[in-house]
């Protein structure tokens, strides 16, 4: 197909793809008084920031955002290191039955969350982790580990074992080799996994829905869903502004770190 | 590493001496423990609960396969299975198909990176975020209806109310989000195709569809298996977008398996039945996972 036809087809499709984004921006910017569900295509006024402020006030989004930021930073940070440690044990330290352990860890990611929701809810209620930040960090960490172990093992497989042997001859301990040699070599893979997992956690809805309740603990996407069902009828422009606010961090992060994303995806074959 | 003869100090022990086995165990332990306690233990507990009658109070009461019988007898469950199948088929057809199309169109095209960008913007949105935008667009007299009216279409269907149309439009909303990442993956695949066979085929006059059929498609096969497998698995788990847009309604008309499980468990407190549905969903997902796990776990793919 000729260059011009290809470009035209892509441009038309691209514009089509951007229409929902346009509609979101235009309508999230309408003051509740000027907003009408019957006139969606033309902008009327610019009250975006007032709407965002109102959305934050209505649903406690500020507290949610702070907690979600904590989850999306701490959990993947722990998970990449734990996953890298597992990969290091299997590949560099040649853990006995390493492949079996690897499959055991990786297997944690293949079944749907539905299979663990109820026992988690039940157990969290009993031990006082329900509706707590610690409980959320722990569960997000656990579900992030299989993927990071998978990627890090694959990555370490590409490092010659002689690197490890040389460090041993220099008298380094296993911990030192891990922290000073392997982790630094893997930094780009670590960042790639971290970004993928942080995005996934920021966007989580289901675990937040089941394991939390209060505005302070509840992840932001779960709060947005609550806001949509409570105010979706009367204050649509406010809800749209809330949706924009909640979505912006991951969209911006993704667009600026596309290379890392692509790398993480390629490393995970995903 | 292979022979024990040099380590006579520990007779009877077949294992070779390896100073790092201890630390290896220490390094793998945190991951194994976290995954075992937070993922595998709950998993086994759900499997057990599916064989009991339980509502959160008192103790689970053993009922054998009664929950599974009840599940299979329930017309709402069958509706949910059908909707889920529709999701699987639709997700393969639309986001994977268009994603491949976009990747092929932008391949070796000047400015291709920029032309791909619009498709990538929705990728990092949450399912609920997508739901908020599309519920607004698809509402009665909403943006889509206004646009259609401008083109003279008066009587439009109730997008999110009429079943199974509501499932179809939700699949399209998901496609709006998913095309970008599939395009990105197929692009990575296309870029890794060696240049020589392509040049040879071009010299031989292969072009367009022929080039695609005889060179590109076979070379993309391994990647396609992964993308298809992941799409199937992801669509089987569909929850967020449906919960955000129709809550499975009207009635239970647009429920997926993941949603039915959630409702039976956390709305109706039918823990046993909800667990049975979870086990069913897991079995189906695992079967589908084999498709791409074989590819992923084969040793050739250490990157």
Characterization of the model:
The complex is a heterodimer of chains A (270) and B (303). The radius of gyration of chain A is 23 Å and the shape is globular. Chain A has one domain (51-268): MetI-like fold. In chain A, 76% of the residues lie in helices and 0% in strands. By secondary structure, chain A is mostly helical. The two termini of chain A are 29 Å apart. Chain B has one domain: MetI-like fold, CATH 1.10.3720. Chain B has helices at residues 21-49, 66-73, 75-106, 112-120, 127-138, 143-150, 165-191, 195-203, 208-236, 240-245, 257-267, 271-297; strands spanning 52-53, 61-62. Chain B has a two-stranded antiparallel sheet. In chain B, helix 2 (66-73) packs across helix 12 and helix 3 packs antiparallel against helix 4. The longest helix of chain B has 32 residues, at 75-106. Chain B is flat and about 75 Å long. Mean pLDDT of chain B is 86; it is low at 1-14 and 299-303. The interface between A and B is large, with 105 and 100 residues.
CATH superfamily of chain B: MetI-like
- How far apart, in Å, are the first and last alpha carbons of chain B? 27 Å
What is the CATH top level name of chain B?
A: Mainly Alpha
Number of domains of chain B: 1
Query: Low-confidence parts of chain B, pLDDT < 50 over ≥5 residues?
Result: 1-14, 299-303
For the largest beta-sheet of chain A, the strand count, sense and barrel status come to: none
| Tally of helical segments of chain A | 13
Radius of gyration from the alpha-carbon trace of chain B, in angstroms: 25 Å
SSE order of chain B = HEEHHHHHHHHHHH
CATH topology of chain A: MetI-like fold
